[in-house]
Amino acid sequence: MKRDDSQFMERISLDIEARQMACKILAVDETADKEHLKRAYRKAAMKFHPDKNLNDPDANKKFTLIKCAYELLAEDKPCPALLGEINSWPGAPKDDKYNLDNPWGHFLWWREKFFE
Length: 116
Description:
mainly alpha
């Protein structure tokens, strides 16, 4: 595959974006080792587990994304659910807190909606 291949560059860009999202979901640095990732995963899983959040309709989705983020960072397993979730946003927020003309702004809005 050529370096200037647009599909190759797009896959690299999507992989980087997914890894950045995974780091934000688990609240870890990009340089976190496996032990730190495991602790962050357990902490997030306990906090957002569907059994502990019975009144949250998005609890299963949050838990799935936490698992997906851990698998991507710790085991290098690609997870289309991270980008798939971002691409399926139902709409923009009502306030102007985030710049929604780029994927990063959408991600920040989405992260606050689900995890804060």
